[in-house]
Amino acid sequence: MNLIITCARHLESETRQELLDILEKLGDSEPKITITNMSGILTAETKLEPIIVVKKIKEMLLDEPWCIRYCLRIIPIQKITETKIESIDDGILDLIKLISNGESYRISIEKRNSNISSQELISKIAKKIKNKVSLEFPDKIILIEVLGNQTGIAIVKKEDVLSVEKTKRSISE
Fold this sequence. Notes:
This protein has helices at residues 12-26, 50-63, 85-95, 118-126, 164-172, and strands spanning 3-7, 32-35, 41-45, 71-76, 79-82, 105-112, 140-147, 150-156, 162-163. It is α+β, with helices and mostly antiparallel strands. The chain has two domains: 3-77 and 159-172; 79-156, VC0802-like.
């Protein structure tokens, strides 16, 4: 998986179809979209670059806000690992080079179907990063998306994660 999509509960199949159509428009005719066993969560495996996909979907949304009805959030994922503190830590070490020297960062963890310790994970990762922490306005966000026994990791800018509601609201302002 390289995208996590959230939607309203019980609208997973409509969301799946919407996403299939969007990804086809963007040039991936055979994405693998999975409705997870967690209500309102889908995962997608696309051959396209996930951060660019999110950026293009955001552009589509700004052009015609009604083109997306079911997707609520679209989160790019750069690496998949098993849900163990050591595995997640190792996965982040591979991606840490995406944070430049002067950039600040924040660690964001979303846990679903898991009781892994967020505090333990944050302190273990933070020890390895010399950069300054900024909870309010970080240059980069270390995103840890725990979905049961699988965890998706990404190091992104705030605008790399699409919140359909916020984007639609920004249009009307």
